[in-house]
Design goal:
- By secondary structure, this protein is an alpha+beta fold.
- It contains five helices and six strands, in the order H-E-H-E-E-H-E-H-E-E-H.
- A hairpin with a 2-residue loop joins strand 2 (38-43) and strand 3.
């Protein structure tokens, strides 16, 4: 199984984030415009939280709050669990499954370098399986018994 760093290398685009004082409507715009389901909350280069579509629906829409007047700080998950680039994807997948996370911010020496989603983990697992099948097919066709 690969590392978080290898999964991040497959992703493109800039880090999507906003500040804790920004309004929820801005978080929703960023999610829509970038086709993601979460946005990191970073104040002065420090990760302070993460806000998801679920946070916006459950903590803003259901209580009838106005997304244009509700700050992200009111609905975000503060001090989110983070991972490091050298962490194994299998341990990230286990944590996501056990704790119900779909997104994990990645920190390298305290600096945010990306986000890994459950979709990123699944894609990397599929790539790894495809490589293994290719290696096995090569062995069977060229080097295997009777080959």
């Amino acid at each position: 199984m690969n590392t978080v760093k290898s999964a991040l290398a497959q992703k493109s685009g800039a880090l999507i984030h906003l500040r804790s004082g920004d309004m929820v409507v801005e978080a929703l715009r960023q999610m829509r415009d970038n086709r993601v389901r979460s946005v990191l909350v970073i104040d002065d280069d420090v990760l302070v939280g993460i806000v998801t579509q679920g946070d916006c629906a459950i903590k803003v829409l259901l209580p009838g709050l106005d997304a244009k007047q509700t700050p992200v700080s009111q609905v975000m998950t503060g001090n989110p669990v983070t991972i490091k680039p050298d962490d194994r994807l299998e341990s990230c997948m286990a944590m996501m499954a056990a704790r119900g996370f779909r997104h994990l911010p990645v920190l390298d020496a305290g600096k945010v370098v990306g986000v890994i989603s459950i979709g990123d983990v699944v894609k990397e697992i599929i790539r790894d399986l495809e490589r293994n099948v290719g290696d096995l097919m090569g062995y069977v066709m060229r080097d295997g018994p009777g080959g």
